Amino acid sequence: MADTQLTKKDFASDAEVKWCPGCGDFAIMNAVRSGMVAAGKPRDEVAIVSGIGCSSRFPYYMETYGFHTIHGRAAAIASGLKVANPKLDVWVISGDGDSTAIGGNHFMHVVRRNMNLNYVLINNKIYGLTKGQYSPTSEMGQISKSSPYGVIDYPMTPAKVAISLGGTFVARGIDKKMKLNEEICVRGAMHNGLSFMEIFANCVIYNDGAHDKLVNKEDGADYHIILKHGEKMIFGATSQYCLVQDGFGIKAVRIDKADEADILVHDEKNAEMAAILAGMRPDNGLPIAFGILYADDRKKTYNDMVYEQVDAVKEKRGRSIDDIMQSGHTWTV
Amino acid sequence: MADTQLTKKDFASDAEVKWCPGCGDFAIMNAVRSGMVAAGKPRDEVAIVSGIGCSSRFPYYMETYGFHTIHGRAAAIASGLKVANPKLDVWVISGDGDSTAIGGNHFMHVVRRNMNLNYVLINNKIYGLTKGQYSPTSEMGQISKSSPYGVIDYPMTPAKVAISLGGTFVARGIDKKMKLNEEICVRGAMHNGLSFMEIFANCVIYNDGAHDKLVNKEDGADYHIILKHGEKMIFGATSQYCLVQDGFGIKAVRIDKADEADILVHDEKNAEMAAILAGMRPDNGLPIAFGILYADDRKKTYNDMVYEQVDAVKEKRGRSIDDIMQSGHTWTV
Amino acid sequence: MAENAKLTSAEQIVIKFTGDSGDGMQLIGNQLTALAALDGNDVNSLPDYPAEIRAPAGTVAGISGFQMCLGDHKIYTAGDAPDVLVAFNPAALKHSSKFVKAGGMIITNSDSFTEKSMEKVGYTSNPLEDHSLNGYDVKAIPMFTLVREALAEMELPIAAKDRCKNFFTMGVLCWLFNKDKQLVLDFIQEKFGPKAKKPLLKVAQANTLAFKAGLNYGETAIMFQERYDLGAAQIEKGLYRNITGNDAAALAIAAAGEKAGLQSFIGSYPITPATDLLHYASEMKDVNLVTMQMEDEIAGICSAVGAACAGDLAFTTTSGPGLALKTEAAGMALILEVPLVIVNVQRGGPCTGLPTKTEQSDLLQAMFGRNGDSYMPIIAANSPADCFDATYQAAKIALKYRTPVIVLTDGYIGQGSCPWKVPKMAELEDLRPYVNFWVPEAHPGEKYVSYKRDPETLARDWAIPGTKGCQHRIGTLEKDINGAVSHDPMVHQQMTEFRKAKVDNLAKVLPDVEVNGKTSNKVLVISWGGTYGAVKGAVDRMIDDGKPVSGINLRWVWPFPANLGEVISQFDKVLVPELNMGQLSLLLRAKFLVDVESLSKVQGDPFREYEIIDKVNEMLGE
Amino acid sequence: MAENAKLTSAEQIVIKFTGDSGDGMQLIGNQLTALAALDGNDVNSLPDYPAEIRAPAGTVAGISGFQMCLGDHKIYTAGDAPDVLVAFNPAALKHSSKFVKAGGMIITNSDSFTEKSMEKVGYTSNPLEDHSLNGYDVKAIPMFTLVREALAEMELPIAAKDRCKNFFTMGVLCWLFNKDKQLVLDFIQEKFGPKAKKPLLKVAQANTLAFKAGLNYGETAIMFQERYDLGAAQIEKGLYRNITGNDAAALAIAAAGEKAGLQSFIGSYPITPATDLLHYASEMKDVNLVTMQMEDEIAGICSAVGAACAGDLAFTTTSGPGLALKTEAAGMALILEVPLVIVNVQRGGPCTGLPTKTEQSDLLQAMFGRNGDSYMPIIAANSPADCFDATYQAAKIALKYRTPVIVLTDGYIGQGSCPWKVPKMAELEDLRPYVNFWVPEAHPGEKYVSYKRDPETLARDWAIPGTKGCQHRIGTLEKDINGAVSHDPMVHQQMTEFRKAKVDNLAKVLPDVEVNGKTSNKVLVISWGGTYGAVKGAVDRMIDDGKPVSGINLRWVWPFPANLGEVISQFDKVLVPELNMGQLSLLLRAKFLVDVESLSKVQGDPFREYEIIDKVNEMLGE
Ligand SMILES: Cc1ncc(C[n+]2csc(CCOP(=O)(O)OP(=O)(O)O)c2C)c(N)n1
Ligand SMILES: Cc1ncc(C[n+]2csc(CCOP(=O)(O)OP(=O)(O)O)c2C)c(N)n1
Ligand code: SF4
Ligand code: SF4
Ligand SMILES: [Mg+2]
Ligand SMILES: [Mg+2]
């Protein structure tokens, strides 16, 4: 099996998938399988670590090594796993609650350390598994079981935070855009460093239609843009808008009002621009940015540096444990 | 006492200060006292919440209500305290380990919620209290007790992360610059919303001189800039450098090579620029930015919104507990 | 003609509903509860639903259940084997038929027994026809057909019509149990009629028609030879509602704050099966109850400690894994000596375990799950309704002793419901005397000393921020009477002893345990928390049968009531049934050096009375 | 002339050094330890330092101490009251003089008794002159004067010269205890001489001169009438070094990995008093020991669980509050059934408590501080050197049983040091047989089943990621034998029983407890962990005195060794001295229904032998 080219189907386990019919997680699983195919590792060299949440049931459905762990800690667990065996292709699958609420700290630090993991955050802006409480990515005013009068927390934008932490690969997709998600997962899987892939998903039960504004047939195209490296930032149902620089920020203008030369061209390696792109929101008159916002693998990964240091110390000191035990001030009786 | 104008001395408690002689925390305590004087609250309406660390011994030295709590959780504790009694002037005092390691999650969320707290992060880039391990703000390669061969974690930049989370007041000071710190603390104290004040401090015992490059007499001025709202960004021992925009980023150039009109002017209300300023580092050829990087209090605070919602629900539903208990499907026996 | 069906009077009837998770088993169960309760029966119920992921419809794994027991006397559990099972589809039948009492009745929707649906659960032939259910009284009712017929005139999608099968079933049951149909008709109006919060007139009409069709079906179908008649129970007079333990606890939180003259505060993070408490509390913003959903459990309890420090009446709510995360901060409340109530709705463990299943396995965690010697009072609610009283009591003790208090409930009582006599706020104990903040006005000439203690309760003097002139510092390091950090060996010894004595002292004011039965009996069965009902029911039955068995219930699990040792010493044998591997047993053994026997069950399911009876009989050598 | 000083032979001598935190008490203590050990004495020591904040020099709060006991026989504690106190300044004298044995010797640096320094600690007159120390044998030595004189020729700052007072003192002690001066001279060369890692030739010279000055002072001063002569102890032959418990544990972690053929992994977060373990381990990158300092304790243990899942030999290290935070994740290792060793260096609690003080109050947290029924083996190291063996044993059991194991040490043994017979790697037990990963090659024709168990140990079959064709899924929900999530009631019952039985089973292979003394004696004293030394010393002394007292030490605290119940039952009375409020007592009472007496002490300080002797005498009615 390892020798022949695997297909997506090879990555499906026998277990019956228990997400609600229509749940956005199905589409995302499909994209992740593409990523694994692209990474080219045999299934027994792939490990998936998830937390707790609907999305975190993911590993059960995959014909790889899978670890369904505890709520919020997948990033830390995966970090240990990767450092222990850097040859594995390690994926973290986590929900918005899992990653940005209880798991916020580990999310922050795994990005900062640039651990070579593929990190998929399935963002449905709700706690699905516990039946519908708001999450840190829920919108202001959102009604949920625990916010019957509306959320009063400002939402957080994980992709933006990831960039502020020096993330080396930051992408955003949405369940409905299957091809885009595949592209993201394939690129993410190949990236050497932490690949942060936030994918919006629809929770049909507790937050149905949360992302509809962005992808509805009528004017959804007016509210999002798909970024492509080297291409002009043009969007809208009839490509009627474009993005141009505005001081240190970005603004959207009608393309017919813009100077062609001013239209921004996407550059995956521009971290400052990526931060701005990540923060764009329709309620600020800007489209949500999908695609690969940032990708640059010139920064060393933590797991590589661990062993560089190990090798250097071995080279320099190269003691045996007996040496160490017998060192210091010893005496013989 | 409450009626007369308090002075800094009034905020000193009787307890003997037990920091090492020369510790940077002394200077910061002085600045915070200025902030409290400026805020104008009587001492019995001020509460300080700290975590655990050398810096977190702070409350004992202050003639206010003080809570020396547990490691990393001061922000969460202070959030409950502030919501329970919004009239109090509440300060959080925390170290770099306390805030960005174990307390990273609460730091992130308290900023996101824009809780009206004054949050002082004393950043000595080391765990002082536990005798010298590296922290998430320690530099790559830094030698410490737990990194005898050098740190391999990329450092995090708390101010930048705070901005990415929608922080409404973000400032940076350094122990040696007493006047600047006072300005920061006074402005922070007056700000309605979360005032994040990161102040670099010297740990004379475990990380002595960590910030010396920035403030040494010879060329320290070449490595930092003090931002002032409305003023041009010029720095250097002989004001020989200035900052100019470079795409979405910023670069430093010799002032004699720059077009006067290109020299950036600091604007406290420009969040995008603040993010770039916060991320500047000498090893990227840019000066560390001190001063008030960002300040804008147009965003509502969480604690205000809590009670707006409470008032709205009282207005709209206005039930008594008896009403609620007796509601639903009841019957009489 | 069923009109002549026999009216058999019964003392209690156990009914179980099972169907797909989306089928509304809990709803129909609650409706029947209310109907029976309105009619004067006592009722106890037990929901049983699958793990949170919505399993595909029509599979055994996706079945939700709701069991209830109606009686003409006080009912303590949802009963053992059902007399009547209502199984809405083949999967439900497969799931539950084995539980039904021999000769019991099974009602199903025969329209749902399609080839495909039977195949899905592995029936190779139709169990309604292949005699595999011989021995049961099977009522296969073509519910869809009958309902669609009844609603033929109405313009409604088929799916919506089919949903009315629940009220159809209610009609059948209303007839079967001889209940007053008007109560259901009123209920439909109340819920969906013009005066409802969200009027859904069509739904009201459809459900009314379906309900009546069900009633008629009972009356006219030849299938039913028997009707049950349950007399009214002797129930205390008053206003009642059906309530879950989680809702009851939420109400207690609001009520305790009001009666203490304080704002109530909940700092929490959602976790099954405690979330409903947070949901209900979040709705009560109009009664000075502030809820903060924090970023994690640690922040949940920490915000509550902060609120407590500011003088709110503070709570945090969680379940096992959440309690595990809160332990360091619980120790903070303990060493700061501020009041805090931790409500822990236990679920199956260890680790993530069985989130939706009930268990009592957090007792030792509640006792010992903190670093250092750290004692806290623990109260265990023994029924859904008791969650109100237990939480209210916990708040009182927390305030009075300046201590964190843990309330243990479990999935069974937190999510299960029972009728609750609604208290009047005016009649609840006034908690203001226990608040007793230190204010200079009340202590002329005295200086505030933060760890000076009340000689009786050992509660410390407590001044909250904002109190004029009382600014002071406290912390989580060991401290002297002034709150100043102290490394003095004897200070630590003394403070540790104070903290222990404070909790031990509480035993002095706790009510003595009451023995159900004679103290000269042979076997004593000790219940705590959710085992109360099964033990009470079992012991009552055995006493009725003349067996030498007695029972007690521990409401405060720590400290033990003062007379407990004496009571225990009067029995030859002691049995502790627990939904864990013997946790209370361990505490009792250690404290009283008595060889208590542990009846332990960790199957995600509460005890049945018969399990206890069997065990006691064994102990009696029978 | 002191040359004629009497040479008194002694069996053991207790010496205490006290001085400012910066004065290097630990260093001088370690030097004397090495000196005495080289000379064949057995040594035990106890450092005692203030809370982490550097208190201002010259204050009582800022005093560091180091106590040690040298003997001509096996020494189990640092002794009770010191025979000799070396107090380097007025604050040190104030702090410690009260501890000295009646008639004991007090050596001080009289040059440090300035007006100002005495005033600072509240001496209104000079204690060296005002007769307040009558009853002690006070040696007031003008150390600065003498040292400066000895170093008059050297160009060194005064402060550097003054620092040499420590080697001056060593000289005095070397003379006083009749030790071989060459050993010290060699040591100085080794440490600072031309062949040292960092040669500091001036320092070497200065210390040599100061040391000789001290020796001469002893020889010539008329102050000393007596010298002590300690015979060599009967000590096992071999290579020795002085080691702290934390360092020993770090070495065991490296050694166990190597002997298991696995990379060792530590995921940790710094916390007093466990940090030194992490420090030492972080230096060992050249021997396949990877350390990750994570963002918090939870990430620390989680990274270790991740590493364990990948097949590393995984450890996490912490102290009380950290253990509190790790409990949920510890439950994860437990339900995943992967090996993991948690080293917990206990400190004073509850909450932040007394970080720098020792205590044994995490035992019940280690036992029960997790949600659900969750059993783990617990081993307690009983001396600094034993931390090596205990940690090594823990690793073996973790691997063999696929289970998390907790190692309990405490501040006293973690930071204290004692001579350690350095083992040879080749002689340590081979751990490879316990690794036993499941690989298809070893099971031709079989399919991998993740929770299939070894019939004897109940350890599960375990295939790590990367194993060809064995991909599978496991998780923290209850699961069946295949690792698939299961809500089946009987699966949960059975898995819970398996998890419990696995730990209970371990008792079968644990060594029986050995009784120190006769089993026909009246009183049995049970020690665990750090109380071992004091109990052993006390019981030995009482046995020598013919008292009917015996002792045992529990190394494995859970499960209890198989013969423990029988041993206990042979005694009339059982005493458990603990640095907590009676935690092991509770476990013993619950398990054996024996009325054990608890001698509890929570003063941040280990037991002294006399405290135990006094208590036993009381129990013997004497
Ligand atoms: C320690 C702990 N706290 C809380 C929970 C309850 N819990 C399980 S999943 C979840 C949130 C799920 O939301 P998200 O991560 O967004 O995943 P989704 O279900 O939406 O895919 C919560 C609060 C838990 N299992 N463990
Ligand atoms: C739960 C817990 N984990 C770890 C510790 C140990 N600890 C105390 S302070 C500290 C870090 C201190 O560093 P920082 O916050 O930067 O403060 P500083 O001492 O440098 O001012 C650590 C790791 C603790 N007290 N509690
Ligand atoms: S509840 Fe929502 S997130 Fe969970 S499986 Fe269903 S649709 Fe998906
Ligand atoms: S150790 Fe460092 S941070 Fe702590 S008090 Fe001393 S100088 Fe300050
Ligand atoms: Mg979600
Ligand atoms: Mg620090």
From TrEMBL, chains A, B:
Protein's UniProt name: 2-oxoglutarate ferredoxin oxidoreductase subunit beta
GO terms, molecular function: oxidoreductase activity, acting on the aldehyde or oxo group of donors, iron-sulfur protein as acceptor; thiamine pyrophosphate binding
Gene Ontology biological-process annotations: cellular respiration; small molecule metabolic process
The species this protein was found in: Desulfuromusa kysingii
Every Thiamine pyrophosphate enzyme TPP-binding domain range: 52-198
Keyword terms: Oxidoreductase
Entry-linked InterPro entries: 2-oxoacid:Fd_oxidoreductase, THDP-binding, TPP_enzyme_TPP-bd
Automatic annotation (TrEMBL), chains C, D:
PANTHER family (UniProt xref): 2-OXOGLUTARATE OXIDOREDUCTASE SUBUNIT KORA, PYRUVATE-FLAVODOXIN OXIDOREDUCTASE-RELATED
Gene3D superfamilies according to UniProt: 3.40.50.920, 3.40.50.970, Pyruvate-ferredoxin oxidoreductase, PFOR, domain III
Superkingdom of origin: Bacteria
Pyruvate/ketoisovalerate oxidoreductase catalytic domain residues: 22-215
Domain Pyruvate flavodoxin/ferredoxin oxidoreductase pyrimidine binding: 263-476
Record carries keyword Coiled coil: no
Ranges where the Pyruvate:ferredoxin oxidoreductase core domain occurs: 523-585
GO molecular function: oxidoreductase activity, acting on the aldehyde or oxo group of donors
Record keywords: Oxidoreductase
Pfam families: PFOR_II (PF17147), POR (PF01558), POR_N (PF01855)
One Gene Ontology biological process: response to oxidative stress
Family matches, as CDD domains: TPP_PYR_PFOR_IOR-alpha_like
Name of this protein: 2-oxoglutarate ferredoxin oxidoreductase subunit alpha
